[in-house]
Specification:
Oligomer: homodimer
Largest interface: A-B, 168 and 167 residues
EC number (chains A, B): 6.1.1.12
Family (chains A, B): Belongs to the class-II aminoacyl-tRNA synthetase family. Type 2 subfamily.
Distance between the termini of chain A: 22 Å
Largest sheet of chain A: 8 strands, mixed
GO biological process, one term (chains A, B): aspartyl-tRNA aminoacylation
Number of helices of chain A: 16
Catalytic activity (chains A, B): tRNA(Asp) + L-aspartate + ATP = L-aspartyl-tRNA(Asp) + AMP + diphosphate
Number of strands of chain A: 16
Strand order of the largest sheet of chain A: 6-10-11-16-15-14-13-12
Protein name (chains A, B): aspartate--tRNA ligase
Strand content of chain A: 15-25%
């Protein structure tokens, strides 16, 4: 990449804060931001002048242990040594007595006369490191240096693994601590917009402390998101994005084992302004372009191109002005499409096996991550069956009616009714994951295959986790004449979809597929309350930064 | 997805042809398109009136074998039967004498009096199916029906596997053929924009035929791309996109085995119009937005957020007006970023292992696909070493100078010099895959870490396949003061990148990474001449459809 490209790239980044929150939160945020900005400006000026932020950066001149502490020169690929590094998560009693080298973040630091206590953090793992002045391995200057390292700085620390008399309950590594023999801050943190410890606290812990008369800090959603690169450091967030990574991997594993191939469809499409409010439009070399709202038509074209079974993991763009707990303007779509011999149940068979594989895999491979998330955001493990429940839409309506809900048997279910049905299903079938199929034709897209036996219904389905929809899918119409007819029946402008219809006219196999909202899967599997918690840098109608 | 969303989605799709080619090609194309359009319109009208295109759709009324042929009702999820289907690729002599059921495309069809010969195609596999009137299993009406099925239609065919006296050289399944016992066209193809057989031919075959006085059809790039959903059916294209799928899978495998986690960074960024010509800009709910040119800054933020080792596979958008064989306006980026302890060579170690794993994996897992590609586009297997060659930029310059090239030792290498160096390296080291590192600082982005020992150079690298760059990477500057200083030195507006610089001020680990152009890897590994061959629906300055 050239320097010019880099220059343009940087202009794309802008982390200016956008307040969304109530008055109270806004005031708090403004104050914190102002304070942080002032301190940051001061630190930056100092840093740019090449001055030291603290007098404790360098060892004291006459200290015989001077080589064991102090800020080293910048890591700049000078050389590669044979030094061996240990991960914090690997610090266990079996290393007792050994000297280890660790690079980690300073989670907390506390100087106390002739001693200093640090907690080091690496992702979700923490360990305590201690310094006591003995003038043999630890000098006064060294303790002073350690005590002055700002939280969130990154240090290279050498220490001897020892077994503490009592477990260190505040750390993930409860059975060991490190007696520091060398300490070098390789990257010092400026004053933080908020404390990672405050951002890591559960609501329950805050409530309990309040009952005991102690006021613990919390951090509002907007302050977190404005400083997402700090917020993401909390143990729960470290775990959430590892779970997210596993969701994608498990999705692929299951499909690849069934001969699906991965495709990449274009996100830049041609389109005029008539595209409607929910499409992002842009200028493409002087022509109107818009961003793909789904890979739907392209994955169908892949099927018409004999790809057989395809999947894609990629961004999906929706210019919808919905500021809810479960909508984003950009999310990650897990999409699949496949030929079928006879029925959309073949698609459901694949999805059923896929999600059982995914849930089982998450519980097995991400047990530690799920426990970490649960500490801050408590949740019950998802109830699911080895073979997923399939209910027809009509059966769902019956259950709702029997429970006293007034529902239109051929209308759509709103969020409230979906939740209610989820509850009834859980009570009756003991599962929070189920399939609802044969939706009314009238509430599905024009390209959905109608049911042969009763054309009020369609060969379609939604799939739910904890009463919220995560997947929508169907058998698609592969016959160009029927497709044109359905478009006409729904009053769609056939002209504008002629090329889509045409793609089926050179021989098209029966096929079906589905689209999954990845962030929703993570949110609902982990019982989280907001989709912004499962998007690394969320985009909604009010947020486009950082 | 709602009907309204679907309606908007369709408007995004537009396959109008865009002529790019020379006068001759354009004339040919226009003629073909006109003809296709006329025939398509006729077929569509006929289909919409519910009329039959051919009198041969239905069995003859008095034919006792009437149940064995004819167009069946539309596959509409009526029921699921226990019928067992066989893939064309699985039709081998060990099935001799068995009756099988196949759903496949009609590749070619030839009626000849009382017999008909079909070639069925599934992805890259083909098999011959034959009908001879015997009035026991095959009637006259059946042969007439078979003979009239248009090429590229999809049929359900039942037949007995027999061993032909001589191998069927024209098919991939040379050792067997099918004696048809039932035949039903489930999706009939309209007249094609071009023949798949013409699009599947190698230049060599056309040349040889011409020498023998025979004029074989070929299909130009624009006609292919205008009708990509037909073009993608050629065996070479079927193979190319399976190789592409494997490239992504092998990339991930190698990184996941090394504890990388998968992330999804936003493609919608905030940005003003000053962003420059190579950024796509759009309106984001009333604010200026632009599309991500690379996940660079976000993957660095993930590192500053303690993700440790991350990768992303996703679209990258470049509004560059470069109409070359290796540039696209939208391509798939394989990106990775990782903390390092000491040196960018740690990144190179990961990339070296990754690409050796990828190339070995492709040769092993995609042997058949590579052979199929080679049939239409002949290429030599890539030469690579078990441990990849690393040359410094200075060493590369020396090799070029020794070979008589006049090169600036601190300037950038143009495409011609890169190719020349690739040739020299291949001659000297017998590899077409190598790493060039320690690029001059002046030609790299401002965020590239300078070399400590000689600041004319930087901690950066490019990686080449067959003399063309596929990867660019480096150690990044993690010190906010140095980052600001470098931006100033290069005359960049520090204000506009303040938020990027700020993301490093809360403690940032040393780190480095790289970005790989996925379509380039596939193109160069397979020795293809144009990146449009490895993008499913390519986007360039002149093409935004289909």
């Amino acid at each position: 990449m050239s320097s010019e490209q880099a220059a343009e790239e940087m202009q794309q980044l802008n982390t200016s804060s956008e307040s969304l929150e109530a008055q109270r939160e806004a005031r708090k945020q403004a104050k914190a931001a102002e304070k942080a900005a002032k301190e940051a400006a001061k630190a930056a000026r100092a840093a740019q002048r090449g001055q030291k932020q603290s007098s404790a950066l360098e060892p004291e001149a006459d200290d015989p242990l001077a080589a064991h502490y102090g800020d080293p020169e910048l890591v700049q690929s000078q050389a590669q040594t044979e030094r061996v590094w240990t991960d914090v998560a690997d610090l266990t009693p079996k290393l007792d007595g050994q000297t280890v080298l660790v690079r980690a973040r300073v989670h907390t630091v506390r100087g106390k006369g002739k001693s200093a206590f640090l907690v080091l953090r690496q992702a979700t793992a923490t360990v305590q490191a201690v310094l006591f002045v003995d003038d043999v391995t630890v000098s006064k200057g060294m303790v002073k240096y350690a005590s002055a390292i700002p939280r969130e700085s990154i240090v290279d620390l050498e220490g001897r693994v020892v077994l503490p008399q009592a477990p260190i309950e505040a750390c993930s590594q409860t059975q060991v601590e490190l007696k520091v023999t060398a300490l070098h801050a390789i990257s010092r943190a400026a004053p933080l917009p908020f404390e990672v410890t405050d951002a890591s606290r559960s609501a329950e812990a805050v409530r309990k402390a309040a009952e005991a008369g102690e006021l613990l800090g919390t951090v509002g959603q907007d302050v977190r998101l404005d400083n997402r690169f700090v917020d993401l450091r909390t143990p729960a967030n470290q775990a959430i994005f590892r779970v997210q990574s596993a969701v994608c991997q498990l999705f692929r594993e299951s499909l690849q084992a069934r001969d699906f191939i991965e495709i990449h469809t274009p996100k830049l499409l041609s389109g005029a302004s008539e595209g409607g409010a929910s499409v992002f439009q842009f200028d493409y070399m002087g022509r109107p372009g818009c961003l793909a709202q789904s890979p739907q038509f392209y994955k169908q074209m892949a099927i018409c191109s004999d790809m057989g079974r395809v999947f894609e993991i990629g961004p999906v763009f929706r210019a919808e002005n919905s500021y809810t707990h479960r909508h984003l303007c950009e999310f990650t779509g897990l999409d699949m499409e496949m030929t079928i011999k006879e029925s959309y149940h073949e698609v459901l068979d694949v999805l059923d096996a896929l999600f059982v594989h995914m849930f089982t895999g998450l519980n097995e491979r991400c047990a530690r991550e799920l426990a970490v998330i649960s500490e801050q955001y408590p949740f019950e493990p998802l109830k699911f069956l080895p073979k997923s429940l399939r209910l027809t839409f009509a059966e769902g309506i019956e259950m709702l009616q029997a429970a006293g809900y007034d529902v239109d048997p051929l209308g759509d279910l709103n969020t409230e009714l979906e939740r209610a049905l989820g509850k009834l299903v859980k009570e009756k079938y003991n599962t929070e994951f189920y399939i609802l199929h044969r939706y009314p034709l009238g509430i599905r897209p024009f390209y959905t295959m109608p049911c042969k036996d009763d054309n009020r219904y369609s060969c379609s389905f939604d799939i739910f986790i904890r009463g919220e929809e995560i997947i929508s899918g169907a058998q698609r119409i592969h016959d160009p004449a029927l497709l044109a007819q359905r478009a006409q029946e729904l009053g769609l402008p056939v002209d504008s979809i002629q090329s889509y219809i045409d793609s089926f006219k050179y021989g098209a196999p029966p096929h079906g597929g589905a689209g999954v909202g990845m962030e929703r899967v993570v949110m609902l599997f982990c019982g989280l309350d907001n989709i912004r918690k499962t998007s690394m840098f969320p985009r909604d109608p009010k947020r486009l930064t950082p």
